[in-house]
Batch of 2 targets.
Target 1
Amino acid sequence: MSLSPLALRVLQGLGALWTAPNTLIGLIGGLAGMVAGARPSWNRRDLAIVFRDWPWGPGGAITLGNVILHTGPVLDVACRTYAHQAGHCTEPVIGLHDHERAHVYQYLVLGPLYLPVYLVCGGVSARNPFERAADVYAMTGRGWWPGVP
């Protein structure tokens, strides 16, 4: 099933409203990071405000609604899948921006339910179906929702 561009934008707008509480958390984190040098920019492709050079965390990125907090200077970098890092399999590197875009899409669907559901599913781990779906999407451009090829 394919949606018209207008219908897709309407659904994305409704999803953005639905996940606004998560986006607000991301904006607060991003604004706090600006004091220490984080730089925001709108990324149309990822449907998110990306705060680059976010100063806290172990490295990488975290998505909160339509906000991506990234510790590096550019989001368009290669990274390993969670399953590869955990030693479950060998997979090619993926684009971090594609992985995080999948999480933005997931937030648009689940809205304020995303964080509790994500945590119940295992949090940041190779076992989490949301992380696996984001990795698959980053590898193939399809399947950003868990269990949907």
Target 2
Amino acid sequence: MAQIPTPPAEPEDSPDAYVGLDADRAERLARERGWSTVRSLPPGAIITMEYRVGRLNFEVKDGQVARAWKG
């Protein structure tokens, strides 16, 4: 039986560190810190709720990160 692959570890980085940053700067910083996927969303966006290792989500309002979360 084949082994179940182990997903890569997420960066040891707090999503809260991105709140208040300019959205473009926050995305660049997240990629530099090792997040494989960065998703910027408008407030109230309808999204799927599946958890993806290595993905960082930003809720962007008026060009700034208002909320950030993993998955």
